[in-house]
Amino acid sequence: MKNTDILFCRKALVNRLSETSAYYLLHPSNETERPQTSFLSSLFVDVNLIEITQQKTIFLHSNLDELSVLPLQSNIHMVVFLEAKMLTDHHLDELCELRLQGYQLGIIDPQPDMLSIDLFNVFSYVMLSLDQINLETTIARIEHPFLSSKTIWVDAIERSEQFDQLRQASPDGLFSGNFIHKTTSIKGKRILAHKMILIDLLAALNNSESSPRVLATYIERDPTLTYRIIKLTQSVLYRSQFNVTNAQRAIEIIGIRDLIKWVGVAMLSSVSGKPDCLFSMAVSRACFCQNLSAALFPKLEGAFLVGLFSYLPSFLDEELPLLLKDLPLEQHIKSALLEYKGNLGGVLKIVEEYEAGRWEKIPFDRLETKGISQQTLKDLYIESLDNAKQIGNL
Protein backbone atom coordinates (compact mmCIF):
# COMPACT_ATOMS: atom_id res chain seq x y z
CA MET A 1 0.00 0.00 0.00
CA LYS A 2 1.42 3.36 -0.96
CA ASN A 3 2.12 6.01 1.61
CA THR A 4 -0.62 8.17 0.09
CA ASP A 5 -3.11 5.32 0.24
CA ILE A 6 -3.21 4.81 4.01
CA LEU A 7 -6.78 4.04 5.05
CA PHE A 8 -8.25 4.65 8.47
CA CYS A 9 -11.53 5.13 10.30
CA ARG A 10 -12.42 6.37 13.75
CA LYS A 11 -14.23 4.56 16.55
CA ALA A 12 -15.92 6.34 19.43
CA LEU A 13 -15.06 5.55 23.05
CA VAL A 14 -17.66 6.51 25.64
CA ASN A 15 -17.57 6.96 29.39
CA ARG A 16 -20.01 5.39 31.84
CA LEU A 17 -22.58 8.07 30.96
CA SER A 18 -22.34 7.13 27.26
CA GLU A 19 -20.67 10.44 26.43
CA THR A 20 -17.95 10.46 23.77
CA SER A 21 -14.57 10.84 25.50
CA ALA A 22 -12.05 9.72 22.88
CA TYR A 23 -11.62 8.30 19.39
CA TYR A 24 -9.66 5.22 18.41
CA LEU A 25 -8.14 5.49 14.93
CA LEU A 26 -8.30 2.08 13.27
CA HIS A 27 -6.09 1.37 10.24
CA PRO A 28 -5.19 -1.72 8.18
CA SER A 29 -1.96 -2.47 10.01
CA ASN A 30 -3.98 -2.89 13.24
CA GLU A 31 -5.23 -6.14 11.76
CA THR A 32 -2.00 -7.52 10.29
CA GLU A 33 1.43 -8.57 11.44
CA ARG A 34 3.15 -6.18 9.01
CA PRO A 35 5.35 -3.47 10.54
CA GLN A 36 3.83 0.01 10.46
CA THR A 37 6.56 1.78 8.55
CA SER A 38 4.47 4.67 7.32
CA PHE A 39 1.02 4.84 8.88
CA LEU A 40 1.51 7.39 11.66
CA SER A 41 3.82 9.65 9.70
CA SER A 42 1.37 9.67 6.78
CA LEU A 43 -1.58 10.25 9.07
CA PHE A 44 -0.08 13.28 10.78
CA VAL A 45 1.05 14.80 7.51
CA ASP A 46 -2.06 14.18 5.39
CA VAL A 47 -4.94 14.53 7.86
CA ASN A 48 -6.20 17.27 10.16
CA LEU A 49 -6.63 15.09 13.23
CA ILE A 50 -7.89 17.93 15.40
CA GLU A 51 -10.86 18.42 13.08
CA ILE A 52 -11.57 14.70 12.70
CA THR A 53 -11.46 13.93 16.41
CA GLN A 54 -13.08 17.19 17.51
CA GLN A 55 -10.24 17.93 19.96
CA LYS A 56 -10.87 14.75 21.93
CA THR A 57 -8.19 12.28 22.97
CA ILE A 58 -6.82 10.13 20.14
CA PHE A 59 -6.01 6.46 20.75
CA LEU A 60 -3.60 4.78 18.33
CA HIS A 61 -2.25 1.24 18.05
CA SER A 62 1.41 1.30 17.08
CA ASN A 63 4.82 -0.21 17.87
CA LEU A 64 8.18 0.93 19.15
CA ASP A 65 9.79 1.07 15.73
CA GLU A 66 7.15 3.50 14.47
CA LEU A 67 7.36 5.71 17.57
CA SER A 68 11.14 5.96 17.39
CA VAL A 69 10.93 7.90 14.11
CA LEU A 70 7.78 9.94 14.82
CA PRO A 71 8.07 13.47 16.25
CA LEU A 72 5.86 14.05 19.29
CA GLN A 73 2.57 15.75 18.40
CA SER A 74 2.34 18.47 21.04
CA ASN A 75 -0.89 19.98 19.71
CA ILE A 76 -3.07 16.93 20.35
CA HIS A 77 -3.71 14.61 23.29
CA MET A 78 -2.61 11.25 21.95
CA VAL A 79 -2.26 7.86 23.64
CA VAL A 80 -0.24 5.21 21.83
CA PHE A 81 -1.08 1.59 22.64
CA LEU A 82 1.48 -1.19 22.41
CA GLU A 83 0.82 -4.92 22.53
CA ALA A 84 1.79 -6.59 25.80
CA LYS A 85 2.94 -9.75 24.01
CA MET A 86 5.61 -7.74 22.18
CA LEU A 87 7.12 -6.20 25.34
CA THR A 88 9.67 -7.36 27.90
CA ASP A 89 11.91 -5.72 30.48
CA HIS A 90 14.49 -5.31 27.73
CA HIS A 91 12.28 -2.52 26.36
CA LEU A 92 12.09 -0.68 29.68
CA ASP A 93 14.75 1.94 28.95
CA GLU A 94 13.24 2.73 25.54
CA LEU A 95 9.75 3.03 27.02
CA CYS A 96 10.96 5.29 29.82
CA GLU A 97 12.66 7.53 27.27
CA LEU A 98 9.39 7.84 25.33
CA ARG A 99 7.62 8.84 28.53
CA LEU A 100 10.29 11.47 29.24
CA GLN A 101 9.72 12.84 25.75
CA GLY A 102 6.06 13.36 26.63
CA TYR A 103 4.35 10.32 25.13
CA GLN A 104 1.27 8.87 26.83
CA LEU A 105 1.43 5.08 26.56
CA GLY A 106 -1.13 2.31 26.83
CA ILE A 107 -0.74 -1.45 26.91
CA ILE A 108 -3.01 -3.94 25.13
CA ASP A 109 -4.40 -7.05 26.88
CA PRO A 110 -1.70 -7.40 29.56
CA GLN A 111 -1.59 -10.27 32.02
CA PRO A 112 -0.49 -8.34 35.15
CA ASP A 113 1.18 -11.28 36.86
CA MET A 114 3.33 -11.89 33.78
CA LEU A 115 4.84 -8.38 33.76
CA SER A 116 7.23 -6.69 36.16
CA ILE A 117 5.90 -3.79 38.19
CA ASP A 118 8.56 -1.50 36.67
CA LEU A 119 7.39 -2.31 33.14
CA PHE A 120 3.75 -1.94 34.07
CA ASN A 121 4.33 1.45 35.70
CA VAL A 122 5.41 2.92 32.35
CA PHE A 123 1.83 2.73 31.08
CA SER A 124 -0.99 5.08 32.05
CA TYR A 125 -3.69 3.26 30.04
CA VAL A 126 -4.73 -0.38 29.76
CA MET A 127 -6.85 -1.78 26.93
CA LEU A 128 -8.75 -5.03 27.50
CA SER A 129 -10.67 -6.57 24.61
CA LEU A 130 -13.66 -8.84 25.06
CA ASP A 131 -12.87 -10.63 21.82
CA GLN A 132 -9.63 -11.83 23.47
CA ILE A 133 -10.73 -12.49 27.05
CA ASN A 134 -14.19 -13.13 28.49
CA LEU A 135 -16.16 -10.72 30.62
CA GLU A 136 -15.39 -12.41 33.95
CA THR A 137 -11.65 -12.43 33.28
CA THR A 138 -11.80 -8.80 32.14
CA ILE A 139 -13.49 -7.69 35.37
CA ALA A 140 -10.97 -9.71 37.40
CA ARG A 141 -8.09 -7.94 35.63
CA ILE A 142 -9.68 -4.55 36.21
CA GLU A 143 -9.62 -5.33 39.92
CA HIS A 144 -5.92 -6.30 39.90
CA PRO A 145 -3.79 -3.97 42.09
CA PHE A 146 -1.48 -3.16 39.16
CA LEU A 147 -4.42 -1.58 37.31
CA SER A 148 -5.74 0.51 40.20
CA SER A 149 -4.06 3.71 38.99
CA LYS A 150 -4.59 3.12 35.26
CA THR A 151 -7.26 4.41 32.91
CA ILE A 152 -9.08 1.31 31.67
CA TRP A 153 -10.42 0.96 28.13
CA VAL A 154 -12.59 -2.07 27.37
CA ASP A 155 -13.13 -2.78 23.68
CA ALA A 156 -15.34 -5.17 21.66
CA ILE A 157 -18.36 -4.83 23.98
CA GLU A 158 -21.28 -6.39 22.13
CA ARG A 159 -24.24 -6.08 24.50
CA SER A 160 -25.64 -3.38 26.77
CA GLU A 161 -25.68 -5.85 29.69
CA GLN A 162 -21.90 -6.20 29.37
CA PHE A 163 -21.56 -2.43 29.34
CA ASP A 164 -23.65 -2.17 32.52
CA GLN A 165 -21.39 -4.64 34.34
CA LEU A 166 -18.19 -3.06 33.11
CA ARG A 167 -19.05 0.52 34.01
CA GLN A 168 -19.80 -0.67 37.54
CA ALA A 169 -16.42 -2.43 37.68
CA SER A 170 -14.61 0.59 36.20
CA PRO A 171 -16.62 3.80 36.84
CA ASP A 172 -13.86 5.97 35.37
CA GLY A 173 -13.20 3.68 32.41
CA LEU A 174 -13.75 4.04 28.68
CA PHE A 175 -15.81 1.65 26.57
CA SER A 176 -16.23 0.83 22.89
CA GLY A 177 -17.87 -1.77 20.70
CA ASN A 178 -21.05 -2.61 18.85
CA PHE A 179 -23.18 -2.14 21.97
CA ILE A 180 -23.28 1.57 21.12
CA HIS A 181 -25.59 1.00 18.16
CA LYS A 182 -27.29 -2.27 19.10
CA THR A 183 -31.07 -2.16 19.58
CA THR A 184 -32.55 -2.46 23.05
CA SER A 185 -35.39 -4.98 23.19
CA ILE A 186 -38.67 -3.54 24.48
CA LYS A 187 -41.24 -5.95 25.85
CA GLY A 188 -44.78 -5.35 24.68
CA LYS A 189 -45.97 -3.56 21.57
CA ARG A 190 -45.70 0.20 21.60
CA ILE A 191 -46.33 3.06 19.20
CA LEU A 192 -43.25 5.16 18.56
CA ALA A 193 -44.15 8.83 18.23
CA HIS A 194 -41.17 9.55 15.99
CA LYS A 195 -42.00 6.60 13.76
CA MET A 196 -45.63 7.71 13.36
CA ILE A 197 -44.54 11.24 12.42
CA LEU A 198 -42.15 9.78 9.85
CA ILE A 199 -44.85 7.53 8.34
CA ASP A 200 -47.34 10.38 8.06
CA LEU A 201 -44.76 12.76 6.65
CA LEU A 202 -43.53 10.30 4.02
CA ALA A 203 -47.10 9.57 2.97
CA ALA A 204 -47.80 13.28 2.62
CA LEU A 205 -44.59 13.85 0.66
CA ASN A 206 -45.60 11.12 -1.77
CA ASN A 207 -48.85 12.98 -2.37
CA SER A 208 -48.21 15.63 -5.03
CA GLU A 209 -51.06 17.72 -3.67
CA SER A 210 -49.55 18.12 -0.20
CA SER A 211 -48.73 21.73 0.64
CA PRO A 212 -46.15 23.11 3.09
CA ARG A 213 -49.06 23.88 5.42
CA VAL A 214 -50.14 20.22 5.46
CA LEU A 215 -46.59 18.99 5.94
CA ALA A 216 -46.08 21.45 8.79
CA THR A 217 -48.96 19.93 10.75
CA TYR A 218 -47.06 16.64 11.02
CA ILE A 219 -43.79 18.24 12.04
CA GLU A 220 -45.43 20.45 14.64
CA ARG A 221 -46.65 17.38 16.54
CA ASP A 222 -43.15 17.27 18.05
CA PRO A 223 -41.94 20.59 19.54
CA THR A 224 -38.26 19.54 19.43
CA LEU A 225 -38.57 18.50 15.80
CA THR A 226 -40.22 21.81 14.97
CA TYR A 227 -37.47 23.77 16.72
CA ARG A 228 -34.71 21.95 14.85
CA ILE A 229 -36.35 22.42 11.45
CA ILE A 230 -36.80 26.15 12.11
CA LYS A 231 -33.19 26.40 13.33
CA LEU A 232 -32.01 24.82 10.08
CA THR A 233 -33.21 27.85 8.11
CA GLN A 234 -30.64 30.01 9.89
CA SER A 235 -27.73 27.74 8.95
CA VAL A 236 -25.15 28.43 6.26
CA LEU A 237 -27.01 25.93 4.07
CA TYR A 238 -29.95 28.27 3.58
CA ARG A 239 -28.95 31.65 5.02
CA SER A 240 -32.50 32.84 5.55
CA GLN A 241 -32.79 36.57 6.19
CA PHE A 242 -36.28 36.13 7.60
CA ASN A 243 -37.35 35.58 11.17
CA VAL A 244 -38.87 32.11 10.83
CA THR A 245 -41.38 31.33 13.57
CA ASN A 246 -43.27 28.28 12.30
CA ALA A 247 -42.69 24.97 10.51
CA GLN A 248 -44.62 25.99 7.38
CA ARG A 249 -42.32 28.93 6.67
CA ALA A 250 -39.30 26.74 7.40
CA ILE A 251 -40.50 24.18 4.84
CA GLU A 252 -40.94 26.90 2.23
CA ILE A 253 -37.31 27.96 2.74
CA ILE A 254 -35.82 24.45 2.92
CA GLY A 255 -37.88 23.10 0.04
CA ILE A 256 -40.06 20.00 -0.07
CA ARG A 257 -37.41 18.00 -1.94
CA ASP A 258 -34.90 18.21 0.93
CA LEU A 259 -37.49 18.06 3.68
CA ILE A 260 -37.41 14.33 4.46
CA LYS A 261 -33.61 14.37 4.63
CA TRP A 262 -33.56 17.10 7.25
CA VAL A 263 -36.59 15.78 9.12
CA GLY A 264 -34.77 12.47 9.41
CA VAL A 265 -31.70 14.22 10.81
CA ALA A 266 -33.75 16.36 13.20
CA MET A 267 -35.83 13.37 14.29
CA LEU A 268 -32.83 11.21 15.21
CA SER A 269 -31.18 14.09 17.05
CA SER A 270 -34.36 14.38 19.14
CA VAL A 271 -34.36 10.77 20.39
CA SER A 272 -33.28 10.72 24.04
CA GLY A 273 -31.55 8.03 26.04
CA LYS A 274 -28.93 7.19 23.38
CA PRO A 275 -25.13 7.70 23.40
CA ASP A 276 -24.26 11.13 22.05
CA CYS A 277 -21.87 9.58 19.53
CA LEU A 278 -24.71 7.61 17.91
CA PHE A 279 -26.14 10.65 16.14
CA SER A 280 -22.70 11.61 14.84
CA MET A 281 -22.18 8.05 13.59
CA ALA A 282 -25.52 8.04 11.76
CA VAL A 283 -25.00 11.42 10.10
CA SER A 284 -21.40 10.57 9.18
CA ARG A 285 -22.62 7.42 7.43
CA ALA A 286 -25.35 9.36 5.66
CA CYS A 287 -22.80 11.92 4.41
CA PHE A 288 -20.34 9.20 3.41
CA CYS A 289 -23.05 7.40 1.42
CA GLN A 290 -24.02 10.67 -0.25
CA ASN A 291 -20.43 11.60 -1.12
CA LEU A 292 -19.56 8.17 -2.47
CA SER A 293 -22.81 7.92 -4.43
CA ALA A 294 -22.18 11.35 -5.99
CA ALA A 295 -18.74 10.20 -7.11
CA LEU A 296 -19.97 6.89 -8.54
CA PHE A 297 -23.49 7.73 -9.73
CA PRO A 298 -23.88 11.52 -10.06
CA LYS A 299 -27.59 11.39 -10.95
CA LEU A 300 -28.61 8.87 -8.29
CA GLU A 301 -30.67 10.24 -5.38
CA GLY A 302 -31.47 8.77 -1.99
CA ALA A 303 -27.99 7.87 -0.71
CA PHE A 304 -28.14 10.23 2.28
CA LEU A 305 -31.47 8.77 3.35
CA VAL A 306 -30.21 5.19 2.95
CA GLY A 307 -27.20 5.90 5.15
CA LEU A 308 -29.26 7.72 7.77
CA PHE A 309 -32.09 5.19 7.89
CA SER A 310 -29.66 2.29 8.25
CA TYR A 311 -29.34 3.57 11.83
CA LEU A 312 -33.09 3.66 12.53
CA PRO A 313 -33.00 0.42 14.58
CA SER A 314 -30.33 1.84 16.87
CA PHE A 315 -32.51 4.87 17.67
CA LEU A 316 -36.02 3.41 17.63
CA ASP A 317 -35.22 -0.06 19.06
CA GLU A 318 -37.02 -2.10 16.42
CA GLU A 319 -35.63 -4.35 13.73
CA LEU A 320 -35.21 -2.65 10.35
CA PRO A 321 -37.75 -4.84 8.45
CA LEU A 322 -40.43 -3.87 10.98
CA LEU A 323 -39.49 -0.21 10.86
CA LEU A 324 -39.57 -0.09 7.07
CA LYS A 325 -42.73 -2.15 6.72
CA ASP A 326 -45.02 0.81 7.27
CA LEU A 327 -42.78 3.52 5.84
CA PRO A 328 -43.90 4.57 2.33
CA LEU A 329 -40.36 4.68 0.95
CA GLU A 330 -39.48 4.04 -2.66
CA GLN A 331 -38.75 0.36 -3.29
CA HIS A 332 -35.12 0.88 -4.38
CA ILE A 333 -34.40 2.55 -1.02
CA LYS A 334 -35.99 -0.32 0.90
CA SER A 335 -34.10 -2.88 -1.20
CA ALA A 336 -30.83 -1.09 -0.50
CA LEU A 337 -31.49 -1.02 3.25
CA LEU A 338 -32.76 -4.58 3.60
CA GLU A 339 -30.82 -6.51 0.97
CA TYR A 340 -28.00 -4.23 -0.23
CA LYS A 341 -29.54 -4.38 -3.68
CA GLY A 342 -29.02 -1.90 -6.50
CA ASN A 343 -26.49 0.89 -6.71
CA LEU A 344 -27.59 2.37 -3.39
CA GLY A 345 -27.21 -1.02 -1.72
CA GLY A 346 -23.70 -1.32 -3.11
CA VAL A 347 -22.79 2.13 -1.80
CA LEU A 348 -24.16 1.30 1.66
CA LYS A 349 -22.22 -1.97 1.75
CA ILE A 350 -18.92 -0.27 0.89
CA VAL A 351 -19.52 2.43 3.49
CA GLU A 352 -20.32 -0.11 6.22
CA GLU A 353 -17.23 -2.18 5.39
CA TYR A 354 -15.06 0.95 5.48
CA GLU A 355 -16.49 2.11 8.82
CA ALA A 356 -15.84 -1.32 10.34
CA GLY A 357 -12.24 -1.39 9.10
CA ARG A 358 -12.97 -4.35 6.82
CA TRP A 359 -11.04 -2.80 3.94
CA GLU A 360 -10.18 -6.19 2.44
CA LYS A 361 -13.88 -6.62 1.58
CA ILE A 362 -14.06 -3.37 -0.40
CA PRO A 363 -13.96 -4.02 -4.20
CA PHE A 364 -11.16 -1.56 -4.95
CA ASP A 365 -10.55 -3.13 -8.37
CA ARG A 366 -14.09 -2.24 -9.45
CA LEU A 367 -13.94 1.17 -7.79
CA GLU A 368 -10.75 1.94 -9.73
CA THR A 369 -12.71 1.59 -12.98
CA LYS A 370 -14.94 4.40 -11.69
CA GLY A 371 -11.97 6.56 -10.77
CA ILE A 372 -12.17 5.83 -7.03
CA SER A 373 -8.78 4.95 -5.55
CA GLN A 374 -7.98 4.16 -1.93
CA GLN A 375 -6.85 7.75 -1.52
CA THR A 376 -10.12 9.02 -3.01
CA LEU A 377 -12.16 6.84 -0.68
CA LYS A 378 -10.20 8.06 2.33
CA ASP A 379 -10.74 11.66 1.21
CA LEU A 380 -14.48 11.04 0.86
CA TYR A 381 -14.54 9.59 4.37
CA ILE A 382 -12.73 12.61 5.80
CA GLU A 383 -15.09 14.92 3.93
CA SER A 384 -18.08 13.07 5.38
CA LEU A 385 -16.78 13.59 8.94
CA ASP A 386 -16.50 17.32 8.24
CA ASN A 387 -20.00 17.39 6.72
CA ALA A 388 -21.41 15.55 9.72
CA LYS A 389 -19.76 17.99 12.11
CA GLN A 390 -21.42 20.92 10.33
CA ILE A 391 -24.81 19.18 10.44
CA GLY A 392 -24.33 18.36 14.11
CA ASN A 393 -23.90 22.05 14.83
CA LEU A 394 -27.29 22.92 13.35
UniProtKB/TrEMBL annotation:
SUPFAM superfamilies to which the protein is assigned, alphabetical: HD-domain/PDEase-like
InterPro entries: HDOD, RNase_Y/CdgJ
Domain HDOD, chain residue ranges per copy: 191-375
Cross-referenced PROSITE patterns: HDOD
Pfam assignment, any one: HDOD
Gene3D superfamilies: Hypothetical protein af1432
Source domain of life: Bacteria
Protein name in the entry: HDOD domain-containing protein
Provenance organism: Marinomonas arctica
